[in-house]
Amino acid sequence: MKTLKSAQTCCASKYRHSNSASQRHNFAFNTPIPIQCSITRCTRVNCMPRDAVHQQWEDRALSKLDRRTLLSFASILLASQACIPEAKADPNKVFVAGATGETGRRIVMALRAKGYHVIAGCRDPQKALTLGFGLDKEVAIRQADVTKGPEVLAQAMEDAQAVICATGFSGVNVTKVRSVDEQGTKNLVDAAKAKGVSKFVLVSSLLTNAKAIGQEDNPNYKFLNLFGGVLDAKLAAEKYLRASGLNYTIVRPGGLAKEPPEEVGNLIVGKEDTLFGRDTDPGRRISRDTVAAVCVAALVQPKADNKVIEVVSSPSAPVLPEDQWFL
Asked: What residue stretches are annotated with the NAD(P)-binding domain (predicted)?
């Protein structure tokens, strides 16, 4: 099995990223919940604009999002390029599935801050451009819908040495959850095997294995699984990856927060099936920035190989050195 070499560490490894949230999420695990749309008063999950008024509102919001994300990405771009030698031979390249999502975009920036070259896989390349990915010549934007099959995904991966999967279903029709969170991830695993990648990192969720560990009555599990059985779908994807023969790391985060780590707290790492999102746990939420940092560290930390970890944060937790992130 090939070993992914560590990319050069850049002085811009700490960064902040702000974004515009278009929907509210469950306090525990970032699952979309029905909210009342400010335009149409619709209460459907992930209500999308359908008329001219809605479109104008969306365009204004996107314009604001563009300015903020472009500025954030540009600052990381300038710092990271300043730290990368012009003649660097055979640079590491990582394929990020779900690169335009809230967590995926942070993973892209975290990779660039560490000097990696990135293939940003996404359903909508235009969205990647609005996020500023096109400003960086070391970020290749590729259309990559995980529901389209492993052949399409393998082509999008090109010569990437590693894959980080940060996909997740979003939409109104929850009957299609498994097409993304289960079969979509399986397609990505099959593509990675075909390409012979050296590492596969999967962003999953706490409580995927709830039924097997006596947590089937956990209110967080019961609530989240109402949405198309999303946790069951993620568990099936985890099992498929673990049986694939690929060198993997599965990261199960708690409630995903858009705020930076300075506001959410320091990283807390638990072993597989030890954190449940309860009040008695050492933490329940975690910054998406922290999740991105953990995913990038998993590429080079030997202790991360073939391991499942669960991650949350707490303001009262001590700072955890990176070499202790993988138990």
From this structure: 98-302
Distance in angstroms (rounded) separating the CA atoms of residues 314 and 327: 18
Alpha helices in the chain (DSSP H): 52-82, 102-113, 125-130, 150-157, 177-181, 183-195, 219-224, 230-242, 261-264, 288-297
268-279 pLDDT tens trace:
999 999 999 999
Can 38 be counted among the known catalytic residues? no
Per residue in 183-203, pLDDT (tens digit) is 999 999 999 999 999 999 999
For residue 14, tell me if it sits in a domain: no
pTM for the full model? 0.76
Of 307, 231, 315, the closest CA to residue 276 belongs to: 231
308 found inside a domain: yes
Q: Provide the 10 A C-beta neighbour count for residue 54.
A: 16
Residue 264 CA to residue 16 CA, distance in Å, equals: 13
> What mean pLDDT do residues 108-125 have?
97
* Assigned token pair, 174: 């929850």
Determine how β-strand 266-271 pairs with β-strand 248-253.
Answer: unpaired
Marked catalytic residue, from 72, 80, 198, 205: 205
How many other C-beta atoms can be found within 10 angstroms of the C-beta atom of residue 238? 22
Residue 217 CB contacts under 8 Å (≥ 6 apart), including other chains = none
What is the C-alpha radius of gyration for the chain, rounded to an integer number of angstroms?
19
Please report, for the domain that includes residue 129, its CATH number.
3.40.50.720
